[in-house]
Structure formats: structure tokens, C-alpha cells
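[Automated response] Your request has been received and processed.

Submitted sequence:
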Amino acid sequence: MKKGKILVFAILAIGFGACSSDDDSSNNNMGTIEGVYDLTEFNTGTPTDFDENGTASTNQMSESNCYNDRKIDFNSDNTFTYEMDYILIDTNTGVAVCAENTVTGTWTATNSVITATYEQENGTDVSLNFARSNNGRTLTQTTTITTYPDRNADGVAYNRVGSVTTVFTKQ
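Generated structure:
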């Protein structure tokens, strides 16, 4: 009888020990993912002086207020809304204006990476990977080949090719 009880307890202990949480929303004890994250840095590989004040910066938020309202809202049902504020440049005239676009999609989390996927108007899926840090309060996305606004020697706006790292901070 004693051996039977020990065997039952051993089986139960192994069974409970093998269970793990499938809830990715906490993501390695870094807090919940759900919430609104505001853009706090828009860093480029090359400094620009887009606002033409004589001081170049790699953080484009210092060069234009066009990025001030960019944010991502991750919902508990694994959907998200991404409000993208950016600078749109007419490549024929060099005229730059603030523009915005909002996309919605779904997100998943694995370890300390959040993958957000949405569908473009042409039907193409876009996946964005955000690395979590700072106890889950900071999200960082790096794109190695993309475009960002700059000005040529004559002050005409154009799209420079290079790397961009965006940093979002949870509200």
C-alpha cells in the first residue's frame, strides 16, 4: 500500500511538473504585453538636419514633429492597431508633408519578441518584429534597409536609404 501511494504521488508530481503556461501575454515575466506603446525614438543610421536648424541628429523625432503621434496598441485578444505618423515626400517636387496611416492585425509573442502581422491594401502580409526589454516596457524594431527623410545640399527633401531603429515605450 505504501509503495502504491508513493507511486501515485510520483506520477502526479511528474505530471504537474511537466505542465507549463501557454499564456504568451506575460512573455518571460516581463509583464503583460497588452497596452499602448508610444514612439519615443526614431533613430537612423546617418544623422540628418531635416528641420534645417544647423544641428544634425540620428533621432528623427528631434528633426520633425511628424512622428509625435505614432503608437501601437496591443489588445488582449491578440489584435493590434498601429497608428503610423511619418513624413511623406513627393519625389518629383521634393515637397515633404506629415502623413498618417493606421493598420490593424494580429500579434503573437515568443520569448522576448512580439511579431505583429497586418495585410497591406495590395494583399501582401507585413510582419514586424519588436524586441522587448526594460521589464517589457520598451519595444525596439530595427529595419536594416528602408528609407527615411533627409535633405540634399539645396534643402530639397528626399528619401535616404539606410537603417532605422524605432523605440516604443509603454504608457
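Summary generated for your ticket: Residues 112 and 132 are 5 Å apart (CA to CA). The two ends are 58 Å apart (CA to CA).
If you did not submit this request, please reply to this message.
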